[in-house]
Design a protein that fits this description.
The chain has about 210 residues and is an alpha+beta fold. Helix content is about 35%, strand content about 20%.
Length: about 210
């Protein structure tokens, strides 16, 4: 039975378009990053491991079940568990984007445990924020090649702080999510701008 439905290909097209945009900004160098979108049956379209995100084709998007098991024989990202854990926790989340940007990398070096964003007009680009008079904290986790252990750290943090829009993995990149690919891409672009503002404000010069 072919599990790749019209809905799968529609979501794949959205991820492909997002990948091209994100790559055009230099936020997914080499084969870094991973993207996913949830389907109405609970299965997930996710990028295949090791594919260049600016050159994605339909064959570079695979299908996994809600537990992260491949449904088409291809190999998903090593960080699939970080996607599936967010989908389990947040029923409204329909897409997750994970770039490896220089701003997220520098922010983790500069701010250590969290980056605090406040009194920026662009905070209103994040879901459910309607005023610049907001304070948004983006937690920073140490990088870890043991993905189950890292996922547990993130889960434990979310148990105590569920109202967040993203998190950074130090020396790595960041994860953000939303109710559609378009909303998640909006979050990603806004956070990139805000990370850049904070880095410049604290005196770290961009190349």
């Amino acid at each position: 039975m072919n599990l790749k439905t019209d809905e799968f290909f529609s979501k794949a097209d959205e991820l492909i378009d997002a990948g091209r945009f994100i790559d055009s900004k230099g936020w997914v160098p080499a084969t870094s990053g991973n993207f996913s979108a949830r389907l109405s049956d609970g299965n997930i379209a996710i990028t295949v491991s090791g594919r260049h995100k600016g050159q994605l084709l339909h064959d570079d998007i695979m299908l996994i079940d809600p537990q992260g098991q491949s449904l088409d024989g291809q190999k998903p990202s090593a960080e699939t568990l970080l996607h599936t854990s967010l989908y389990r926790r947040f029923p409204a989340v329909q897409a997750i984007l994970h770039p490896h940007s220089i701003n997220a990398t520098l922010a983790a070096r500069l701010f250590k445990s969290e980056i605090v964003l406040k009194n920026y007009e662009l905070l209103k680009a994040l879901a459910d924020i309607d005023t610049h008079e907001s304070r948004v904290s983006i937690p920073i986790f140490a990088n870890d090649q043991n993905i189950p252990r890292l996922a547990t750290q993130v889960e434990n943090f979310l148990d105590r702080n569920s109202d967040i829009h993203a998190y950074i993995i130090a020396g790595h990149g960041f994860y953000t999510w939303g109710r559609s690919v378009a909303e998640t891409l909006r979050h990603l672009e806004a956070l990139e701008f805000l990370f850049d503002c904070e880095i410049r404000l604290h005196g770290v010069k961009q190349p």
